[in-house]
Write a structure and sequence with these properties.
globular, mainly alpha, single chain, two-stranded antiparallel sheet
């Protein structure tokens, strides 16, 4: 038992946990007067955890990965890459929040602390190689998320969003826990590798039900059809900085966890779960595209957009190959940049009284009143639609390429055809901004930080992003191989 190595492997979560406890004391002693200081220190803690994760991702000494805490926690290139995305998303969500909450005097010191503790749970999720670690990380993230969704206590929509998220999240947790108990009962172990070994002799009917229940619980966390029902309401009702967080960091953690469970725990019986993933992928693509068409609230539209994009990413998982996993991680990186940029643009849509503007018709003529913001939002919309030469096209291309290589040609063909549906509602937003008569509702920006983050995200998803593939491709390939180490 090498405790020093164990603590070293878990150092990102340890740093964030210690920082969270200390900042909680500062918040308790200083009340909301310390909100700015707590936010700055939270960002500093995230940068520390980010540096540790980057070291695990890039240093040669960690290429093979290692287990800790009696095989319940694993740090490898896959977990490190997922944590880098989670921490970068969390940093952005902490930075953009103060201006939003200051409008109503609702910026509280607890906001960055809740983001921090949720990130600890997400770190555990992506490193979990045991059902117990999986559930602890998932619940730690979820409990913080329920509070964040209802953070604006005086706003009925926020309270409703928090209540819906809590009730449906509790149901999903129960489904997941029941599936875990079935897997333990029929395999005799909670270890992912132990489950894979038990499945090598075949899957009993009881264990098959366990697989279905576990995947159903995880489908709720990634907002995949048919467990997507909470997403539009929660995205619309939650404060926009919180919605930005929900659409990025927890999505990364849940998708990474789903990949690890499917490939490491159920990898020996790909035929058992592949059909489920294919159905969920196509259903998410179709419903996410069709249901978004009639939306007039841009946050609800982006909620259905996230469901649609999850479907495309699941095509990579359905391949069940290292190439498919690598393509899925590439798409996830691009998705985080597109989604962060889109929601920060939404954060910058305020009227002259400082009130948020979310109705799409009120964006009419934005290209003439706020040309820079309109151009950035158009870039994100085109990229989300997968229109070349923007970087969003590359995410879809590598996923479809992996599906064709894996022999899933009908799935790739259906995915390509369904992409056209999604393009329609993205183009609708661009049409309103560029071709409708100006509504002259949106006021000039009052946040340099938001504009800087929008600019960075827009540059990344522009054609310049293709230069990043030179560095990203080896990283995502290494991360994908880390999932197949026991194969």
């Amino acid at each position: 038992m090498n405790y020093a190595l164990w603590f070293q492997l878990a150092s990102p979560e340890i740093v964030l946990s210690i920082a969270g406890l200390l900042l909680l004391l500062i918040a308790a002693w200083s009340s909301d007067k310390s909100a700015r200081l707590v936010s700055i220190l939270t960002v500093a803690a995230f940068f520390g955890a980010l540096a540790l994760s980057l070291n695990f991702l890039l240093a040669d000494g960690y290429a093979e990965g290692a287990d800790a805490f009696y095989g319940q926690y694993r740090m490898d290139r896959f977990a490190a890459l997922s944590k880098v995305l989670i921490f970068l998303s969390a940093i952005a969500c902490v930075i953009v929040a103060p201006k939003f909450f200051a409008r109503d005097g609702m910026m509280r010191a607890e906001y960055p602390i809740l983001i921090l503790f949720a990130s600890v749970g997400m770190g555990l999720m992506v490193s979990a190689v045991d059902l117990l670690t999986l559930y602890i990380g998932l619940e730690l993230q979820s409990l913080a998320a329920y509070v964040l969704a209802s953070f604006l206590r005086s706003d009925d929509r926020s309270a409703e969003a928090g209540l819906k998220y809590f009730v449906l999240g509790a149901l999903a947790s129960g489904i997941l826990l029941f599936g875990m108990s079935l897997l333990y009962g029929f395999t005799g172990t909670t270890s992912f590798i132990g489950i894979q070994t038990a499945f090598s002799d075949g899957v009993s009917t009881g264990a098959l039900f366990g697989v279905v229940f576990v995947l159903s619980g995880l489908a709720f966390k990634i907002s995949a059809v048919p467990f997507h029902m909470w997403t539009p309401d929660v995205y619309e009702g939650a404060p926009t900085p919180v919605t930005t967080f929900f659409a990025t960091a927890p999505k990364v953690a849940a998708l990474a966890l789903t990949m690890r469970v499917a490939i490491e725990a159920f990898g020996g019986q790909q035929s058992v779960w592949q059909q489920i993933v294919i159905f969920v992928a196509m259903a998410s693509i179709l419903l996410g595209g069709v249901a978004a068409i009639g939306q007039t609230n841009i946050k609800r539209l982006l909620a259905y957009s996230s469901i649609n994009n999850v479907g495309f990413m699941l095509i990579g998982l359905a391949c069940g190959t290292p190439e498919g996993a690598s393509a899925m991680m590439t798409y996830l990186i691009i998705y985080v940049a597109m989604t962060l940029g889109s929601f920060i643009c939404v954060l910058d849509l305020n009227d002259r009284e400082g009130r948020p503007v979310e109705d799409i018709p009120k964006l009419a003529g934005l290209s003439r009143t706020r040309p820079g913001l309109a151009a950035a939002l158009a870039v994100f919309m085109f990229s989300l639609a997968g229109i070349p030469p923007l970087f969003g096209f590359w995410g879809k291309f590598v996923v479809f390429d992996a599906a064709v290589a894996a022999g899933l040609i009908p799935l790739a063909a259906l995915g390509i055809a369904a992409s056209v549906i999604g393009a329609f509602y993205y183009l609708k937003v661009i049409k309103v901004m560029y071709f409708d008569e100006p509504a002259d509702v949106i006021a000039p920006s009052d946040s340099t930080a938001r504009l800087a983050l929008i600019a960075v995200s827009a540059l990344f998803v522009s054609p310049l992003g293709y230069f990043a593939t030179l560095a990203l491709s080896p990283i995502t390939e290494d991360a994908a191989r880390a999932l197949f180490w026991a194969a």
